[in-house]
Amino acid sequence: MSETFDEFLASRPQLVRDPDARRVPGWCDCPRWSIGDKPIFHRHAAGCDATGEAAEAFTFVGADRVMKATTLEALAAWIPAPPAPPAQDPAATTIVIKRMLSLGFHLVALPAGTKKPRGRGWNDPEQTPALTFEQAMAHVNAGGGLGVLLGPSDLIVIDAENAAATAALVAAGYTPVLYTAKGMNPVRCDPRANKIGGGHFWFRRPSSIPAEQLSNVPQKVVGDGGLVDVLAAPGSMAVVPPTALVEAAGWRYTAEGRNRLWHGEDELSEAPMWLFDPAAGCPTGLENLHGGLVPKAPVERVAHDEGSQELTDAVDGIEWDAVEALDDRLEDWGDADDDGCPVRHWRGADHRKSVTMHGCGRGRFAHVWSGTMRAALGMGDRESVSPLSLACLLLGKDDRGADVREVAQRFGLRLGGEQELDTITPDSLEEAAAELEAAAEAGGRVESRPTTGTRQPDGSGQGEVIRVEVGADGLLRRAAAFRSAAVVMRARQHVVAPQSGAVLIGAGSVVGLPAGLAQAPTVGGVGSTAPVVPSAPQEPLDVETVEGAKTAETAPAVDDAVEGELVEGTDNAAEARRVFRELRPKIREIERQMRDTTPGLKRAWDYAESEGVFMHGLVGALLPRIMASVPPNVVLPPRNGLRTHKVKGQGLNQYGVVVAPSSAGKGETDNAAEAAVPLQLGVATTTNGTSEHWSKLLRGRKDGVDYIKTTSLLAQVDELDTFNAYLTRPDSKMPGWIASTWMNGYGGQGTSDEKNAAVLPKHGSRIGLLVNGQPGKMDVLAAMSAMGVGPRFYKCLAGLVHKADRGPLYGIPVAPVMADQSGQPWYSLGHVGEPPIPCQQPLAARDAGTGLQAAPLIVNKGDAIKDDDGAERLGVTGFDDAEPIWIDLPQCALDDIEAGLEISAERAADWGEAFDQDQEGLVSGHRVPMQMHIAAALMVLDGEHVMSSAHWEAAGLFLIASDLTAAACAAYMELSGEAEAYRLGQLKGVGYAASKAAEATVTSRGVQSAMKAIVSRLRICGGTAMPGYLRSGSDGTGNLPKFGAMSKLQRAHMAQGFAVLEQAGQARLNADGSWSLAGPLAIVA
To answer: Does the pTM exceed 0.85?
Structure first.
């Protein structure tokens, strides 16, 4: 190489040696160079332990943030030498600064070459007064830069980070006011990020929107891959011209001269209302910004009482070191903020300053600067959290409800009911019951109930006071429950000597305090407080953690008799959110493993990286397209291996659901798949429709003769809602059609009406179904497991890769995903419905075929194709009479098939077990056939016609990710059901709230399973039993029939299941708290 290291550095002024000598975890102490605050390469001394090289060596940090070995030559080719920036124009500088001051901007000074302000209180107008014109000019002439404080300037800035974002905003009718330093530079000074063409758009904050209610909106995708930040928080700052940045090789923020604002002809436009109001019309391409600045309601601050202040002091006393130790993604790079508080880096974040852990005069809290960190922790638009909240988020817990109490105990804090206890006596319960009965006699009453709100993924969700009409039936059920609880309390109280500060649970007692006085924590509900249930003899317990014990059959378990437990704090909600947090990281690891199994999946990985989409979702979207050109006579062998007839083979049709929340990347994934694998001539494409419509695209009948229109169909359904509607409408043939066509293409309909006749014989059609679905709308497919519909669909997770996680191939063309198919025995460039003719195939395809065929008859061009009898032939030839092409399977697949046969045999022998599996969505007998389908598609992706163990392994990995996606969908539906129940009734339990919750969750598999368990157990018991007995399966004495305890899923939905049965007149709640079958079910019992 002709360029020395010194010359290399001299030609790249954006490179700065990092003066921080503190060792970064996983890196050595050799000098490193950065662009901005992002390390990019190390220069290792000879003998460095990190490289093991005897001579000087280099390593670089790519977009994946993994250090890799390189050479100086490679670095020089990778990191560009930018052109010199144009000279600063003094006249333009004067105009720009004067205009900004005339607009009322609060300008502040920035150090030379950087956009990071320095000094304590830099964003406090009280401590940092606005620069005058003379001060601003002097600072710029001395080499410094300028920023504008948004709050005192009433300014909102949309920061378009690249040319695509700028174009999207221009297309929406807005004009950039300036271009950024990196946007002005014609080359990418940092090859890991393309910010060429980025600019700022300025807007005046509407006077009707209080500044203190605004926050910033980080990293949203707009237009065709554009990235924007919206800066609106009053403490934020935006860089302005003529600031020059070292990381941009000296190029400057530059005013857009065509914007009339600089000429003093226009005033600053007010920010459009679609930024603040989700109901306002939003320009096309900017939907991800729609409503992004919805003002936050002000938080009312109230004075602390002595107890709450003590609790606040205890939470503030949690040491930051103890919080940091919970998650090794927090890295100490030795940085401190302007106020001296420690700064930590979040592994994977773009910038080194990710979070400041304050313990100063501002208070004790963590301010999270990094959008990557906030996204990883599920913080939404929150930026500041307490030490305890940060600990919860780092542990994957919710920072409210039961999770907070659990995490607090790690730090020696005890939160919850022991802070404030309410007195409950049998008399108070009976008084409450009498009040409820009186209200019932009056026909019901209206109750006001505060809600905490339903927390949204972005952290928003605000509570309110609602008014609920409670009917007489609900009031009487609640009164009966209260009287039953009073009976239990009186029967189990006994006198103990008063002991100051002690709360003891005695054998058979409620709470061991003086007779007539029992204390228990308040449980959610209007006038509803629950006594503590007995536990182990004479054991001091924390009243917050006492679990219900078994009770005699004549007395109700307290949690069955008394309403309570807010949905917001349920175990189901916490478990669901844990599943959501872990879903993408788990699937990302599976994607990495898939990448290394086959050449085709490595190409799919590269293509997904280039497109910026999830690989799992992309592969799922590709599978039907991959198989669309494979004729239907290509089949998998039957389970017993006997290939005596084509009809015994298993087809290769591909049915899948591409799953993602709304506006999360399903469309981009579909587009990427469509571009990657074009369809062969003759493949029929369609969207949603009936199974009859789909069949008629494949087959028809004319003059009593059936004919083939084509042999391949790809249906792409954009919305799961409409697909569900076709599945569930009365007399729908769709479920049966899906179940039969998936295995062998058999289906369709025969009718005397020729225009509707379309009979699909076995192995005559290749069909692909791809449905775009949202996780909360998967209930219909899940409920159809027993019909064989749900298990026919794999589920793949789609989404857009976060900017911080994009790989180096993003935006770069890569190799085609599909391997060359010319070696396949079915290879043809003609119509997909016409069998290939060997003499027209490549030699490789002929060699792979099963035998030679005669050359076709030569006919005059344009003549109609005729049958042997001379009649004109309709449609295409098809493959109904073609010999099968069998796919050979590896031994590992044969072993798994054998195991799958055992599952099928067990289901055939025990219909009860099959029923339970269907109810729980665990029809595992379909798993092996599904793996065969997917492995065959991956085989074709590689241009092969013999399946390998690698294809089988990769298909298994794909299905593991499919299972995780399905589990997350189930959790989403469960959580959605609980959230809806919460909105409708606030409480979960036997009574009014449960009956309302049942209306929202009746389709839930958990509710259905709980209903089945309740009915079957009540029948065993003769029709009546206590709920606690039904739950546990034993009365503890052996006097009643014993059966297995309910599953966790059934227990979680037991109350809702009973409420559904009660509404249907199939069960009733008795005065003593027991449940009984009613109506026809009672007669059967």
So the answer is: no
